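Entry 14. Ran structure prediction on the chain below.
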Amino acid sequence: MTSMPSLTLPTTAPEKGNARTEAALKRLRKAMTDIEAEIVENSGVYPFNHGRVTQSELCRRADVKKATLQNPLHKDSTRVEIMRWLDALNSTLTQTRDSTRARVTAVADDLAAEVERLTLANQDLQMRLHACEQRIAQLQQENAGLRR
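Output, structure tokens:
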């Protein structure tokens, strides 16, 4: 998977940066980082909201009202940067329920094949371990016989 787009929100919203604004920006940044990490962890699929990352979804995750992005303080700065981030992010994601379902199914199939491979490898190792344990028991008996 390619690296996730990064967003550089303004360190303070233009003019009148206050504690509430800073807290909202911090929550938005954290939500973006979390979303990007979840996409990477889930093989390129966003695991919530039917695989879609939208402005509303980001605001929900950040606990910021979407209307906040429409106020004059954020409309031409924070919102623009968020839209840029969403465009870059969404260009790497599948966007429909069907394509998301197909992607999730493909990931699940790959995981099922990996589980099967690991199961077979485990069975092989268990058989080799059993054979080695039998050989150790045999050698211990021979060793005990030689000591007498």
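The chain has two domains: 19-95, 97-148. Will compare against last week's run tomorrow.
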